[in-house]
Write a structure and sequence with these properties.
Low-confidence stretches: none
Order of helices and strands: HHHHEEHHHHHHH
Radius of gyration: 19 Å
Strand order of the largest sheet: 1-2
Number of helices: 11
Distance between the termini: 42 Å
Structural class: mainly alpha
Shape: globular
Mean pLDDT: 88
C-alpha cells in the first residue's frame, strides 16, 4: 500500500472538489437541455468559453467588474441561447436528435473559429476580484480563497436549480410540457416560451461556469472542448436527463479524478471514461437514470 500522508489526500480531495464543481455546473446545464428539451447540445463547451470571454471583454471595454459579470454575463449569453433556440433549434423540433446534434456541433465550431481568428490560441487573462485574494487555512492544506468561493457558489446554484426543477410548480409545468405539450398548451401555458426559457437557463449555467473559471484558467477559444467531453461523460454516468445525477456525479468524479492523481497518476486523465464504460456495462441508464 502506498504510504501517502493524510494531508496530501485531503488536499487532492479539495482540489478535485473544485474541478467537480465545474463538471457539475456544466453537466447540470446539459442535463436540463436534454432532459426537458431532448436536445443534445454540443455547443455547451463553446458557450462556457463565451462566458469566460464575455467577462474579460466586459471588463476591458465596459469597465464591468467581476461581481457585475456574474449577473450580466449569464443573462446576456442566456439571451443568445434563447435566440438560437428560437431561430434554429425550433425548426428541428420533432425531427431525429441527430439533427440538433449536428446543428449545435456546427455552431460550436463556428463560435470557436471566430474567437480563434480574433484572439488566437493564447487567449486572454482575467484577474479575479481583490476581495477574494489570499488563502484559507483548512488545517491540512491552504486553499485559495477564490477556489473556496467557487465551491460555495457552484453548490448553491446547483441546489437552487435542482429545487426549482424538482420541487416547484414551474418545474412540474416544464416536465409536463415536454411529455405532453398539447395538453399543457390547452391549459393555457405557453409551452414554446417555456422551451425557450429552459434552453436559455441551461446556456446561462454554462456561461456562469465560464465566468467562475476565468480567473483560474487561461481564457482561450478551446477551453470548453475538453471539458465538454467530460461533462457528457458525467451526464451519461449520472443518467441522461437526471439533474440530481448530474450534480452528484460531477462532484464525485472531480474528487475521484483528484485522488487518482495520487494513487495512479497515469490514468488520472482517463478515470472518468473508465468509470463511464463500467457504468454503461452494468447500468446502461446511468446511476440515477430510469430504465427505458
Amino acid at each position: 500500500m502506498l504510504d501517502i500522508p493524510i494531508p496530501v489526500l485531503l488536499g487532492q480531495v479539495t482540489v478535485g472538489l473544485v474541478n467537480g464543481c465545474f463538471y457539475a455546473m456544466l453537466s447540470l446545464g446539459l442535463a436540463i437541455i436534454f432532459g426537458l428539451l431532448n436536445v443534445i447540445n454540443f455547443a455547451h463547451g463553446a458557450v462556457y468559453m463565451m462566458g469566460a470571454f464575455a467577462a474579460c471583454l466586459a471588463a476591458r471595454w465596459l469597465g464591468i467588474n467581476y461581481w457585475m459579470a456574474l449577473i450580466v454575463v449569464p443573462l446576456v449569453v442566456g439571451a443568445f441561447g434563447m435566440l438560437v433556440e428560437r431561430l434554429l433549434l425550433r425548426r428541428l423540433a420533432g425531427l431525429d436528435h441527430l439533427y440538433s446534434l449536428l446543428l449545435t456541433f456546427g455552431l460550436a465550431l463556428v463560435l470557436e473559429g471566430v474567437f480563434l481568428d480574433i484572439y488566437g490560441s493564447a487567449g486572454l487573462s482575467y484577474s479575479g476580484p481583490p476581495q477574494l485574494n489570499g488563502l484559507v487555512d483548512l488545517g491540512f492544506t491552504r486553499l485559495p480563497l477564490y477556489r473556496a468561493w467557487v465551491v460555495a457558489v457552484s453548490l448553491a446554484v446547483c441546489i437552487g436549480i435542482w429545487l426549482l426543477i424538482e420541487r416547484t410548480s414551474l418545474g412540474a409545468n416544464l416536465r409536463a410540457g415536454t411529455e405532453n405539450p398539447r395538453l399543457v398548451q390547452a391549459l393555457g401555458i405557453n409551452v414554446p416560451m417555456m422551451v425557450t426559457l429552459t434552453y436559455g437557463l441551461g446556456v446561462g449555467l454554462a456561461a456562469l461556469a465560464g465566468v467562475l473559471a476565468a480567473p483560474i484558467y487561461q481564457v482561450q477559444p478551446l477551453m470548453g472542448s475538453n471539458l465538454l467531453i467530460i461533462a457528457f461523460a458525467v451526464v451519461v454516468i449520472g443518467g441522461l436527463g437526471s439533474t440530481l445525477g448530474a450534480i452528484l456525479t460531477g462532484l464525485a468524479l472531480g474528487v475521484v479524478e483528484g485522488l487518482s492523481k495520487v494513487f495512479y497518476p497515469e490514468i488520472s486523465s482517463t478515470t472518468v471514461f473508465i468509470i463511464m464504460a463500467l457504468v454503461l456495462l452494468l447500468r446502461p441508464a446511468g446511476l440515477f437514470g430510469r430504465e427505458a
